[in-house]
From TrEMBL:
Pfam families: ABC_membrane, ABC_tran. GO terms for molecular function: ATP binding. It comes from Neorhodopirellula lusitana. The chain crosses the membrane at residues 37-62, 102-130, 136-158, 224-242, 254-275. This is ATP-binding cassette transporter/putative ATP-binding cassette transporter. It is a multi-pass membrane protein. InterPro entries: AAA+_ATPase, ABC1_TM_dom, ABC1_TM_sf, ABC_transporter-like_ATP-bd, Cyc_pep_transpt_SyrD/YojI, ECF_ABC_transporter_ATP-bd, P-loop_NTPase. Keywords: ATP-binding, Membrane, Nucleotide-binding, Transmembrane, Transmembrane helix, Transport. SMART domains: AAA. Its main location: membrane. It is found in: Cell membrane.
C-alpha cells in the first residue's frame, strides 16, 4: 500500500510540474486568463500532500511493526535456546544483532516510499522522452541501465568489505561492553587503561573503520561513476546527435532538461541501494544467529510442580567445550537429593560446583547419565517442567527491577524483607526493587528475597553467604536455611564455609569435577566432615 501510494505521489508531483508548465504557457499566450488551472493546482498540491503523508504513515507503521516482530522473534528464540548455546554465542553478539541489525533493516524500509515515488517519476519521465523521440528514449534507457549496472557491480565489490565490517562490529561491541563493565578496573590503573584503549579498543575500532572506509569508498565511487553515465548520455545528445540528424533547439533543450531532471529520482534510488545492501547483510546476520540458537527447548505446562520426593543423578557427566576443545569435564556423578534435606556442595575453585548446580537444575543437559525426578527420567519432554522445581540464586545472577511471576503477599514480603534486613530496598506496596547503589551483599539479599517469594520446592544457593558480613552469615546458616527446612523445602548450597557443615544433612565435595564423597546422612565420611568442621569452629571461637 505504501509503495502504491508512493508511486501515486510521484505521478501527482509530475502532474504538478505539468500544471506549472501549462500555467506558464497560458500566461504567455493570454495573460490574466488562467481558467481552471488555479483550482487544479490547489487540488494537485493537496493530493501530493495526502499521498505522501499517507504513504509515510503506512510505512512508518510497517517498518516499526517489522522491527518489533524481528526483535520479538529473536527474543523468543533466545529465551528458548539452551544455555550453553547462548553462552558460546556470547552476549555481545546477541546485543549487536538486536540493536544494530534490526535498526539497519528498519532504516532501509523507512526510505522505501520515496524510492517508489522516484521510480514512478523516472518511468513517467522516460515515457515522456519516448513521446519526443523513441530512439533517443531507448538510448537514454540504455545509458541509465549501464549506469545502474556499474553501480550494482560496485556494490558487489564493496560487499566483502561491508560484511567484514559487520563482523568487526561484533568485536567493537564486545570491547565497548568490556569497557563499561570494567570501568572501575580501568580507572584505577592508568597503564591498564592505556593498554586497553590503544591495544584493544582502538585496534578493533580501526579494523571496523578500515573495512567500512573500503566498502563505502567503493560504493561512493560506483555511485559517481553510475551517475556519470547519464552525463555521458547528455554529452552524446548535445554534441553527437545534432551531427547525425537535424534537430530543433527546442526539442534538444526539452530533452536535455528532462534528462537532467531525471537524475534526481535516479540519484534517490541509487542512494537508497547501499541502505538496502546493509539491510540485506543484517538479514543474513539475523538468520545466521537465528540458526545458531534455533534449538528450541520444549516449554513447560502452566502448572508448577509444588512437591517432589527425590531427585537422583546417576553417572552424570558434562563437558565444557571452548573453541571445539574440551575445557572441563564434570563427573561421572552419582547424587541423591531428598525432599526437606539440606545438601552442601564444597570444593576448590574451578572444581565444577556451579556446573554441577546447573546440570542439576536442568540448565545444562548432561552428556551422559540420567536424572530422575520421583522415578521419572528427565528428558526433552519434561525438562522445562523439572526446572520449575527450583528457586535459584547464582553468583552472576540478574535482578529484575520488579517481582515477576510472583503474586504479591504482603505478610510474606514483610517477613522476608525484615529477615534479610532490606525493608528499605523494596517498595512494599508495588513489590518494586530499588536497585540503585546496592552493595554486592545487598544485591544477593534481594536475589534471595525473590527466590524466597518464588517459593519453589528446592532452593539452590551458589556461594550466597560469601559476600555477607559475619553476622548475616550466621543468620543465613542458623535462621534462613533452618526456616526453609522447617517449611519442607530442600536446600542445596554451594559453600566454602566449612564451619557450618554440621547443619547439612549431606555434604558432598568436588575435586576436579569428580565427587570425592557422596555420603548419606550418617555415614562415617559425613561424620568426619562434621567433626572436622566442628573442630574448626571450636578452634575459631576459642581463638
Ligand atoms: N561456559 C563455560 N565454558 C567453558 N568452560 C567453562 C564454562 N563455565 C565454566 N567453565 C570451566 O569449568 C570449570 C568449572 O567451573 P565452575 O564454575 O563449575 O567451578 P566452581 O567450582 O563453581 O568454581 P568457583 O568456586 O570458583 O565458583 C572451570 O575450569 C571453568 O573454567
Amino acid at each position: 500500500m505504501s509503495a502504491v501510494l508512493g508511486a501515486i505521489s510521484g505521478v501527482a508531483s509530475l502532474t504538478l510540474i505539468t500544471l506549472i508548465h501549462l500555467a506558464l504557457t497560458r500566461s504567455a499566450e493570454s495573460p490574466g486568463d488562467q481558467g481552471w488551472l488555479p483550482l487544479a493546482f490547489a487540488g494537485a498540491c493537496f493530493f501530493v500532500l495526502f499521498t505522501q503523508v499517507t504513504s509515510n504513515v503506512v510505512l512508518v507503521r510497517l517498518s516499526q511493526a517489522t522491527a518489533a516482530r524481528l526483535r520479538y522473534e529473536l527474543c523468543s528464540k533466545i529465551i528458548v535456546a539452551p544455555l550453553p548455546t547462548l553462552e558460546s554465542v556470547g552476549q555481545y553478539r546477541l546485543l549487536a544483532t538486536l540493536n544494530n541489525d534490526v535498526g539497519s533493516i528498519t532504516a532501509a524500509l523507512a526510505s522505501f516510499p520515496s524510492v517508489c515515488a522516484n521510480a514512478m517519476v523516472l518511468v513517467c519521465g522516460l515515457i515522456y522522452l519516448a513521446t519526443l523521440s523513441l530512439p533517443l528514449a531507448a538510448g537514454t534507457i540504455l545509458m541509465a541501465a549501464l549506469g545502474v549496472a556499474m553501480f550494482l557491480g560496485g556494490l558487489r565489490i564493496a560487499d566483502k568489505s561491508l560484511r567484514q565490517a559487520r563482523e568487526d562490529q561484533d568485536e567493537v561491541v564486545k570491547q565497548l561492553r568490556a569497557m563499561v563493565h570494567g570501568i572501575k578496573e580501568l580507572k584505577g590503573n592508568t597503564t591498564r587503561c592505556l593498554d586497553f584503549v590503544y591495544e584493544v579498543l582502538l585496534p578493533a575500532d580501526s579494523r571496523m573503520r578500515h573495512s567500512l572506509i573500503r566498502g563505502q569508498s567503493i560504493q561512493g565511487f560506483s555511485h559517481s561513476w553510475g551517475r556519470l553515465f547519464l552525463f555521458i548520455g547528455i554529452g552524446l545528445l548535445l554534441f553527437v546527435w545534432p551531427r547525425l540528424a537535424t534537430v530543433s533547439t527546442a526539442t534538444l533543450t526539452g530533452y536535455t532538461l528532462t534528462i537532467l531532471y531525471l537524475t534526481y529520482p535516479l540519484d534517490g534510488i541509487l542512494g537508497w541501494l547501499p541502505a538496502y545492501h546493509s539491510a540485506s547483510i543484517s538479514i543474513n546476520k539475523i538468520e545466521a544467529l537465528g540458526l545458531m540458537i534455533d534449538q528450541p527447548e520444549r516449554q513447560s505446562s502452566a502448572a508448577l510442580p509444588n512437591r517432589f520426593r527425590s531427585i537422583h543423578l546417576q553417572d552424570i557427566t558434562y563437558q565444557h567445550q571452548s573453541h571445539g576443545e574440551l575445557n572441563f569435564e564434570l563427573g561421572p556423578i552419582d547424587l541423591q537429593l531428598k525432599a526437606g534435606e539440606v545438601t552442601f556442595i564444597a570444593g576448590g575453585n574451578g572444581s565444577g560446583k556451579t556446573t554441577l548446580a546447573k546440570v542439576l537444575t536442568g540448565l545444562y543437559l548432561p552428556a551422559t547419565g540420567s536424572i530422575t525426578w520421583d522415578g521419572r527420567e528427565i528428558s526433552d519432554r519434561n525438562r522445562n517442567d523439572f526446572r520449575q522445581l527450583f528457586s535459584t540464586v547464582f553468583v552472576e545472577g540478574h535482578l529484575f527491577d520488579r517481582l515477576l511471576g510472583i503474586e504479591l503477599q504482603q505478610d510474606r514480603l514483610q517477613h522476608w524483607t525484615k529477615l534479610l534486613g532490606i525493608e528499605d530496598k523494596v517498595d512494599l506496596e508495588t513489590g518494586r526493587l530499588h536497585q540503585h547503589k546496592l552493595s554486592r551483599g545487598q544485591h544477593k539479599r534481594l536475589a534471595l528475597l525473590v527466590a524466597a517469594l518464588d517459593d519453589r520446592p528446592i532452593f539452590v544457593f551458589d556461594e550466597w553467604a560469601a559476600e555477607q558480613d559475619p553476622g548475616f552469615k550466621q543468620t543465613f546458616y542458623h535462621e534462613i536455611v533452618p526456616e526453609l527446612k522447617r517449611c519442607g523445602k530442600t536446600v542445596l548450597a554451594i559453600t566454602h564455609d566449612d564451619r557450618f557443615f554440621d547443619l547439612a544433612d549431606q555434604v558432598v565435595k568436588l575435586v576436579d569435577g569428580k565427587l570425592l564423597e557422596t555420603p548419606s546422612e550418617n555415614t562415617p565420611a559425613n561424620q568426619d566432615i562434621r567433626q572436622l568442621s566442628l573442630h574448626t569452629e571450636t578452634s575459631r571461637r576459642a581463638a
